[in-house]
Amino acid sequence: MTDGSGPVGAAPALRVEDLRVSFDGVPVVHGVSLRIAPGECLALVGTSGSGKSVTARSLLGLAGPGADVRADVLEIGGRDLRDAGPREWRRVRGSGVGLVLQDALSSLDPLRPIGREIGDALRVHGMRDPRARRARVLELLERVGMPDPATRVHQRSGELSGGLRQRALLAAALALDPPLLVADEPTTALDATVQARIIDLLADLRSRGQATLLVSHDLAVVARLADRVAVMHDGRVVEEGPTAEILRTPAHRRTRALVAAVPTGVPRGTPLSEARLEAAASAPAWTAEPRADDRVVLRATGLTRSYRRPGGSARTAVDDVSLEVRRGRTLGLVGGSGSGKTTVARLLLALEEPDAGDVTLDGEPWSGVPERARRSRRARIGAVYQDPLASFDPRWSVDRILRDALAVAGLRGASAFDSPGTLLAQVGLDPALLPRRPARLSGGQRQRVAIARALAARPDVLICDEPVSALDIAVQAQVLDLLDELQRRLGLGLLLISHDLGVVAHMSDEVAVMSDGRVVERGSADDVLLRPTHPVTRALLAAVPRLDPDAAPR
């Protein structure tokens, strides 16, 4: 089924015609029409600001304050919701449509066991018998593949891994057997093996008749799950059709740009995005002093770090890890959730001290020395994190954020480059953004500001911890292009920590694979990713969803 019509006589799970959404009189969604049949998955894709999330939330009665939502037809499971008020929408959410969001940790109550949270949804919708509720909760957790559900019902969300939290959220969404499931970026920021399990679970639900609206920036996930794709731009659907056809022969230039932005299989140095960083190209460039291209700038030897659990037992997060970051080259560090990647980054940044082993920066001791001795050299190493919004002071303007970085580095006023405006130009942003606060920037703009802040001190090495995992595919491509351009221009050594093996393959010269706190395989990117020898590496590669039009459901 590829047209949303479904079996003869069956009501569509979703039918919407000429959806218009505006905020305070400003239109943001223009004439969107969608139809999803029972057992069908429709993917809604597009860049940040294209209107896909507003469209999806409008179909749930969650467009937000100041929203004016109108449609010629808005039906879920045959129920007309054009004039639904807040009370009716509350009844529809859960019984008519289930919602799975990207961040399960913030969606689940951290203070309640997941069994009680799912059970409360059942109670609110009329299931009063506690024994019946418990049996239904266990049935749901088993349905979504939760291991040992009888134990998990008593655990809170913070006690579960990312993959198990996402399964719990999915169980809650399916509690009342809604005809429609809305999954908004359900696999973003999960490592490849956990992502593969969630994709398999969603595919299994679809095969059992679950209709799904999938909102995703990951076209490889879309290729695996969706029967049809609708591409949005500027609040409009600009292209719609069967997944295989859209991915193989995209007709609209926006669709072609999205497909071209996927890093898998694109040679290193080939721009992924349409943006060519004209502002950066004309900015006052600085180059580092000439040095040997492959000189080691950051070296870790035998790093070990353990933490005490509340009960007193020790957990080893990093176990005898050694690695090198060379000037002008990128080391990709990959591994599953909990493998120790981020702890390694914290040790390299000297945010924590190792229990054993040492770190050197440009051949000089970096770990195990007083912070006073490190302070003058901190400018040599910079960091870019997954969520820049959490690392910015929300009250500060971009101008103040960058001036503070320059002041801390002791470079304020040293040259024309050492000013907020020229820093922004260096990362391809208009200096007109300087007065804005972080919340008024897009995700891609915030990440570029984070990179500009890291560059303020003219570092020799950048540690990038999941720098693009929360960005849509087009913005992700622009940030990767930017990092590649800056490395070539400035001779930066990069440590790229990522769960996305497509990103790692595109950016890295060498790759190290971690599991259970240890480096289990390392070598050139080609050797590790094309000729893996360790079972963990092979499992990670096997779990990566491929942008393969032939894999789309038929």
Notes on the structure:
This protein is an alpha/beta fold and 554 residues long. The chain folds into two domains: 186 residues, Rossmann fold (3-Layer(aba) Sandwich); 268 residues, Rossmann fold. The chain is built from 22 helices and 21 strands. A hairpin with a 2-residue loop joins β20 and β21. α18 runs parallel beside α19. The relative contact order is 0.12. About 4% of the residues have low confidence. This is Oligopeptide ABC transporter, ATP-binding protein. GO terms for molecular function: ATP binding; ATP hydrolysis activity. Belongs to the ABC transporter superfamily.
Features:
554 residues; 6-stranded mixed beta sheet; globular; Oligopeptide ABC transporter, ATP-binding protein; alpha/beta; Rossmann fold; 2 domains; single chain
The CATH class of the largest domain turns out to be Alpha Beta
Number of helices: 22
Average pLDDT score? 86
- Please tell me what the overall shape is: globular
- Number of E strands: 21
The proportion of residues in beta strands is 15-25%
Count of separate structural domains: 2
- CATH fold name of the largest domain: Rossmann fold
Largest sheet geometry? 6 strands, mixed
Protein name: Oligopeptide ABC transporter, ATP-binding protein
InterPro entries: AAA+_ATPase (IPR003593), ABC_transp_ATP-bind (IPR050319), ABC_transporter-like_ATP-bd (IPR003439), ABC_transporter-like_CS (IPR017871), Oligopep_ABC_C (IPR013563), P-loop_NTPase (IPR027417)
GO molecular function: ATP binding; ATP hydrolysis activity
Domain ABC transporter: 14-259, 298-541
